[in-house]
Amino acid sequence: MEDTAITPSTNTPTSNAQASGGESVLKIWGKQPLQGQVKISGAKNSALVLMAGALLCGEDCRLRNVPSLADVERMGEILSALGVKLERHGDVLEIDSKHIGQSKAPYELVSQLRASFFVIGPLLARLGVARVPLPGGCAIGARPVDLHVRGLQAMGADVQIEHGTVNAYISGGKRRLQGAKIYLDVPSVGATETLMMAATLAEGETILENAAQEPEVVDLANFCRAMGAKIRGAGTNTIVIAGVPNLHSADYSIIPDRIEAGTFLMAGAATRSPITLTSVIPDHLAAVIAKLRVIGADVVEEGTNRLRVVPGVEYRATDIKTLPYPGFPTDLQAPIMTLLTLCEGDSVITETLFENRLGHVPELNRMGADIRVKGNHAIIRGVPFLSGAPVMATDLRASAALVLAGLAAEGMTTIQGLHHMDRGYDDLEGKLKGLGAKIQRVTLEEEPGAAPAVAAPEASLLTSP
Question: Model pTM?
Answer without folding.
Answer: 0.90
